[in-house]
Structures are given as structure tokens and as C-alpha cells.
Structure prediction request, 369 residues.
Amino acid sequence: MRKLLYILGAVLLLAGAAFGILAWRGSSSLARYTNTNIHMGAVSTAAADALCPQTGHPRLVCLANGLQHGMSPELRAQLRRPYSAADARRWSNFPPVGYPDRVGPTLGDFTPAQLGFVKAMPATAAGLAKNEGYDELEQILNADDYLKANTTDNAGFSSGNFHIAFLGTPAERGTWELYFGGHHTAVANTYRDGRLIGATPSFRGVEPFTPFTMNGRTNAPMAQERDAFAAMLTGLTPAQQREAKLDMIFTDVVVGPQRDDNFPTTREGVRVGSLDLHRQQLVLAAIDRYVMDISQPDAAAILRRYQAELGDTYVAFSGAPGMNAENDYVRIDGPSVWIEFSMQPGRSIPGIHPHSVWRDRRSDYGGNG
Prediction:
């Protein structure tokens, strides 16, 4: 019965997604968006760097103030909103016309000078490690430009259609969130009195998944996540794999956008505390691929917390352990950490592509969710 209920739920989820796809094609919401290729890799942050030489949260506050200097009141009103958990939940993996309720202006709304400050903010919050953090975000934006150039979908694909918003006022005191998001992307860093109190929900996906050339570079932003999961799962013994194997088919992530309270009530899979040190390190390496999307020293502090809870963390998967085929799925479920990686069929071009989400049971939305 449990399996039947899950399959029924999956069918309904797919039907809802199909309805969303039909809804965005030809939607009047497309008028809000642009076909502009921003090419963030070519945007200069020199002026922002000169004005704001600080690091960490002080730099973010300085950049936010620099961005708003001389900005029109209309654009500032879109960019800076009062903090609310309701607005913080307004994120999605859909292309922009499939989910028109995101907060904040799009990249296409800013001048070239303003874009330097916009770029500097997620780069500061997410760090600059290769294929992680901001570099990963830039490659996902490049993927949207690739889809715009290589498909006829009227979905609003374009790097110019990604949003940025401040929920609350960036300042030394008080609570605020830096939101950056769009198709296959959600960044939600929440700060209180200058300290990062929540780095999740954090969503990443990319189509195409195979390496592609766009905006002057080769892009493969999520290969390292798949490789880390494949190493983790194939490193288990056959008996451990059987213990970790779920008896359901998963067609998408479970705790995705607008499903904040969808955590399973029972942890399933193999308990990491039962694994030897080498296999525990493979689990920690997979977790690190997500934590590295946050700048230091915050990333190190988060990883220490997850490492301390590793013994009571579980690994589970469905499909094959190589994470190379449609409906291959893996999760890491701990007292705090929750990470999912789900292989999807191609939506706009042939092949497969991943959806992935990092949640924290204790600090999603800075604990304000």
C-alpha cells in the first residue's frame, strides 16, 4: 500500500509539472522577462571591489549600499522588501514563466555598473572555489543562455531572468536574507546581527548535464556532485547497498520548492555510524560539495556541525548507484543536514539532468520558516 501511495503521488506530481509546462508556454507573464544574455563572467566587479574591500558580512552590507546608491525608487522598492518568511519561501526550480512569483528585480533590470555590485554579492556569500559557490551559479546561468540559444521553448530561458532581492535591510544589526534565484537555482542566505544563521534552502539543477560550451567557457557545474554521490554509493559493500536501497521510485526531490514540511518522519537507509572511517569520509565529501557553496569561514563551521552528527546520519538511494540514469536518486538525511540528488529526464533537450536540494532541518530560512 505504501508503494502504491507513493506511485500515485508521483503521478500527481508529474501531472502538476506538466500543467506548469503548458501554463508557461504562451503565458502573458513572459512580458515581465527578457531575452537578454547578461554573460556574468564578463561583468566587472572592479568598482564594487574598490568601494568595498572588506570581507564577509561587512562587505555584503557595503555592496548592498553601493548597489542602491543612485538607484531609482521604483527599482529599490523591488529589490529591498521587509523580511518575511512568506517571501523567503517564494522560490522554485521552474523557469521564470513557470513560476512568476519570485521576489526582486531580474538581472536584466540593472545597468552595467549596477551589475558589478550584483555579481559581487553572491560571489562574496557563496565563495569563489572552482565549480562551487559563485562559479557554479555562473555556469547554471550559462546553461539558461544555452537553452535560449538551442531550444524553441517559450519558458523565459535567459541569464537576464534571474532574480536578486534583499528581504530585510542589509545592516550590521537585524535580520535579513540575500536571495538569488531563477531556473534551477535558489540561494537563501539569512543573516542576523552580522552572522550567517541559515544557508538553506539551497537548490541547484542544470540542463544540459553533459559539458557544454557557452559564454566563452566549458560548463559542467554539477558533475562534481554526481561524482561524489557515485563514489559514496559504489564504495558501499553489497550488503550495505542493499540496506541503503529504497523500495520506491523517486522522480524528483522530496523536499523541494513549496514542500518545506515534506521531510519523511522515519529515516531510511544505512546509518553512517555503522560504516568504517573510509566510507564515512566519502559521505562527508558528498556533503562538502554542498557546504562549499558557502564562503569561508561559515562553510567550515557548517561542515563541523554535520561531521559531529555523522554517526546519526543515513544514506539511502533508489535506482543505480552510479547516478547516471533517469530516476537515479540519493539522499543524505541527518539530524540537521538533508541533501537530495535526483536525475530527471531531459525537459528541453534530450538526455538527463539533475535536480538537487540542500536543506537544514534546524536552520532553513535561518530558523524562521
Notes: The longest helix spans residues 2-24. The chain is about 35% helix and 20% strand. The two ends are 32 Å apart (CA to CA). Confidence is low (pLDDT under 50) at residues 1-28.
